[in-house]
Amino acid sequence: MTQLQPVHAYLADEWLKQGIEYARLGRWEKALRSFNQATKFQPDSYEAWFNRGNILFKLERWQEALANYDKAIQLQPDSYEVWYNRGNILFKLEQWEEALASYNHAIQLQPDFYLAWGNRGSTLYNLGHFAETIASCDQATTYKPDYCEAWYIRGLALVNLGRSEEAITSFERVLQIQPHYYPACLNRGLLVFQLERFDAAFTSFDQATRLQPDSWEAWFNRGNALFKLGRLKEAVASYDRATEFKLDYHEAWNNRGLVLFHLGHYQKAIASCDQALQSKPDYADAWFHRGNALFNLGRFQEAIANYDKAIELRPDYAPVWGNRGSALYNVGRFAETLESCDNAITLQGNYPDAWYIRGLALIKLKRPEEAITSFDQVLQFQPNLYLAWFNRGSVLYELGRFEEARASCKRAISIKADYYDAWYIQGLALINLERSEEAIASFDKALHFRSDFHEAWKNRGSALCNIGCFEEAIASYDQATTIKPDYYEAWYNRGIVLLNLGRPEEARASFDKTLEIKPDFYPAWNYRGLALDQLGQPEDAIASFKKVLELQPDDYEAWNNWGLVLDSLGQSADAIAHFDKALELQPDYGDAWNNRGLALVNLGRLEEAIASFDRALTIQPEHRAAWNNRGMALQELETLSE
């Protein structure tokens, strides 16, 4: 036996050398057979077991490799290399704690072994021990400053600790050492993107696509950076490349749809979202973005269905609830709008758009005070939203709170000086505050920014009437009817001014035009009757008053006016009956009491007439005609008494 041992050692050494040569050439199976022979001839050869383990590692036969390293350690426990390689096998097997123990052994035996420090850092990273990861990587780079992998893992650990700037520095160090290190380039881009440094992000992602042209992830993130930079068409091209390399890349299809939406290509956006949903049917974001495109196409019911699907998948996403509320508002489902906006606000209290749509819905639901509260909430979060100031002002105007309405519209105008609607509502509020000259100035501003604003021309005419500028008022009404020939309110107001100017023929023509457009507008029939009476056409006047009462039987003014015509025709008894009807409907109608008194005078019933004048004066103590008529009746009564 003693003579065989040197022979066995020699053969083992030869097989070992042969195995090492085969390994150098990458011929793993031949190398393995050689090392098998080496361990057969010399079972206690550390080098044979160690090298055999290395080949098994190359062949990804992890458990066999581990057993070989364990055998090598039994033979030579102070070999840092075998402990290191054993750690690598355990790392591959995701046995992190055991791998860490092996790397610790290697470092204990060889403290400056940078590879062990680096892989130890990677292991600690996988265990979630990020601070220790950094410390281990720092040791690795102390011993080898150009150790890219350690700098890279250090960067990842810093990301997880929220230390973004330091992480960026680590990734940049990697790229200084190895400019073609794709993962560092990509991760640097992701970090600067999160920090909203979109130019730098684009540069990183662009570089990543050059380093790895088929990286769908790099093209996707490049598209995201371009989107943030407002370079929308280029972003679409980037997403196209991403989906070229990964056809089922739902995030890229979704983001492509979002960019197409911002480009106004709504049909294409829908098609892109459809691709995303084909790959991932439960992708809430794609349903949301698809809904937005449908919304902008005016297909509100379909948009609502898409928002409902998004909510089913992601019920805690406030923007979906908010946009759903907007779509519901557009189809007139105001109670549901309110509910949807309330859900959005519950999830995200500082959501001005949802508060705003909620306010609009409350207006439609005739809950004005709550609407004002909603607009106040909008303005708390977004004080420069002129639409909220305007709609708040409009609601205040409808509530008769004219000074507050004016102030709210003034705020809207201070933000958007050319907002003609706000100038218009401010003008209406000023009319009601009896500040007609300021109202005219406000309407003039509205008309400066929108010359065909027929409502502003009409109400400008009303304000001009209030300050006695009747001819200018008529000119304003003419502008309104030129812009909108069927604007019956302007024709009506024009007629009243002409009647007051003693131009009954023109007034009648205006009222006829009003009634041609809106035959059931009974106030125009009433004034038409007055114009006809002034034109000496009492029968036609009475026919007009009758038309009023067909449309509005309780119109006391028509009864009174009919009575006046009858009295002028000498039919005073019938006139009194008509005045009585007017007073039955409106007991405090001073003019009717006065007119009744005149009819009674005509019938010689002076005491009753005086009583009628007294009633008129009780109601309207400043009624000059009633005072005069009472005086004449008293004088006539005294004359008769003599």
Essential attributes:
642 residues; mainly alpha; Serine Threonine Protein Phosphatase 5, Tetratricopeptide repeat; 80% helix
Description:
- The protein has 642 residues and is mostly helical.
- The protein has a domain at 554-642: Serine Threonine Protein Phosphatase 5, Tetratricopeptide repeat (Alpha Horseshoe).
- It is 80% helix and 0% strand.
- The chain is built from 37 helices and no strands.
- The chain has helices at 4-24, 28-41, 46-58, 62-75, 80-92, 96-109, 114-126, 130-143, 148-160, 164-177, 182-194, 198-211, 216-228, 232-245, 250-262, 266-279, 284-296, 300-313, 318-330, 334-347, 352-364, 368-381, 386-398, 402-415, 420-432, 436-449, 454-466, 470-483, 488-500, 504-517, 522-534, 538-551, 556-568, 572-585, 590-602, 606-619, 624-641.
- It is rod-shaped.
- 52% of the residues are buried.
What is this structure, in a nutshell?
It contains 37 helices and no strands.
CATH superfamily annotation of the domain at 554-642: Tetratricopeptide repeat domain
Given the structure, what is the number of helices? 37
What's the average pLDDT? 95
Helix content: over 70%
Structural class: mainly alpha
Name of the level-1 CATH class of the domain at 554-642: Mainly Alpha
Under CATH, the topology of the domain at 554-642 can be stated as Serine Threonine Protein Phosphatase 5, Tetratricopeptide repeat
Low-confidence stretches: none
Proportion of beta-strand residues? under 5%
CATH second-level architecture of the domain at 554-642? Alpha Horseshoe
Rg computed from alpha carbons, rounded to a whole number of angstroms = 46 Å
What gross morphology would you assign?
rod-shaped
N-to-C span: 176 Å
Main sheet overview: none
